Amino acid sequence: MAKIKFTPSQLPKVSKYARDRQRPSSAYFKIKKSTVEVNVDDLVFSDNDPRAEDLDWELVDEIYNNLLEGGYDEDGQLAAVVANEFGTYDVIDHHHLIAALKKLKQKKWYVDVYEYTGIDPDYLWIAATDFGFIINNSKNPQKKTTIRSVVRAAQDRIEKYGYVLSPNTPVDDIHIKLWLRETKQHEVFSEGKLTQIINKIREPDKFAGKKIRNLSTDEVRETIFKGSGDQYGPGAIRGGTHYGFVVCTDTAKADAPKWWNQVLNALDNGYVPLIQTYSKKDDPALILKNHKSGFDRMYEQFLKTTRNVSKFYDQVSFKELSKKEFLAKLEYVAIGQIDGEYTAGDNDFINRIVC
Fold first, then answer.
1. For 270-284, what is the mean pLDDT?
2. How far is CA 292 from the centre of its chain?
3. Where are the domains of the chain?
């Protein structure tokens, strides 16, 4: 495996192994032509493709940096695409790589062109989702399949079409298991995890299949802040009355003490502290849990501070504030990520219940 340097005006080097190896296929997608030279601008993400909505922009940045600094793996698997009616190509798999190439302003690339063999055009993107799982689960992917992505794909299908496996089949354990086997989920998940997936599909909780707006990049967050009209964002905002801190809650236990220090600095400078949280997780329950944990941990730091400060003064004690009283002294909001709790450009910032 060799990393080969390239420039935006050059095609990548593709090894004989990468050119000649057997391509994956499914009941609805067959390889038409492999190692096809195309313009990167002609590789598009279809609005009908649910997988395109799940791009992890942090991973895109990682791939971008790897390509820029290390080059391209000449043995790497090529992106799978299908020709569309507009003379361009819809991406079926390797969405993150293509997004990174576009960021690099790469001119040309090699892809594998597939043919959709189904009769019903409306079924194309259902079949493409399954084929994407097959490709992803059959190799060592840069972004592994998650339980949420599998459950969401199933739930979307049930909601729109009333089946999981194929048209006119019931949504029961047998057909869900057949679908999981067909999409090679058994190559990624243990039997226990597969049972968990089946149960989540059969008896979904309120978070099942919820889309997560990805906020992992500075660019995305800055766009949201800009749309708030100086009401939210980092630094002095709202005419200089508030000071905003943007924090990721995924490691709140370790990071919340730092947030508390920022709160103290803001108060010392005459600002109202405004903590704005986001998460890089793709699990709604985890996002909510970590948001609350961040507040709880920061409140613990407040209690610890006041208790210890009182020890320095004789006959002086501080009345401990309740969580609600503490919350009233600052603002603690979430940048909306879970589908249904925000409307882009309208209510992007959510006062989730923390106490």
1. 93
2. 20
3. 3-119, 145-209, 218-350
As given in the structure block, the two tokens for residue 258 are 């730092």
Using CA atoms, how far apart are residues 173 and 156, in angstroms rounded to an integer?
17
Six token digits for residue 294 = 């961040």
pTM of this structure: 0.70
Q: What is the 3-state secondary structure (H, E, C) of the chain?
A: CCEECCCCCCCCCCCHHHHHCCCCCCCCEEEEEEEEEEEHHHEECCCCCHHHHHCCHHHHHHHHHHHHHCCEECCCCCEEEEECCCCCEEEEECHHHHHHHHHHCCCEEEEEEEEECCCCHHHHHHHHHHHHHHHHHCCCCCCCCCHHHHHHHHHHHHHHHCCCCCCCCCCCHHHHHHHHHHCCHHHCCCHHHHHHHHHHHHCCCCCCCCCECCCCCHHHHHHHHHCCCCCCCCEEEHHHCEEEEEEEHHHHHHHHHHHHHHHHHHHHCCCEEEEEEECCCCCHHHHHHHHHHHHHHHHHHHHHHHHHHHCCCCCCCCCCCCHHHHHCCCEEEEECCECCCCCCCCCCEECCCCC
Beta strand 272-278 with 331-335 is parallel
Q: Which residues contact 178 (CB under 8 A, 6 or more apart)?
A: 165
Segment 102-150, tens digit of pLDDT? 999 999 999 999 999 998 888 899 999 999 999 988 876 666 788 888 9
Q: Whose CA is closest to 214, among 55, 42, 17?
A: 55
Mutual orientation of helices 191-202 and 173-182 as an angle, nearest 10°? 130
CA neighbours within 13 Å on the CB side: how many for 132? 26
The two three-digit tokens of residue 146, written as one number: 């998650």
Task: Please name which of 212, 210, 152, 226 lies closest in space to residue 337, comparing C-alpha atoms.
Answer: 212
Backbone angles phi, psi at 58, to 5 degrees: -70, -40
pLDDT at 209: 66
Q: At what angle do helices 147-161 and 124-137 cross, to 10 degrees?
A: 160
CATH code at 3-119: 3.90.1530.10
User: In the structure encoding, which two tokens stand for residue 349, read together?
Assistant: 């910032």
- Tokens 């909780």 correspond to 205
What is the side-by-side strand order in the sheet with 331-335?
235-237, 242-248, 272-278, 331-335, 349-350
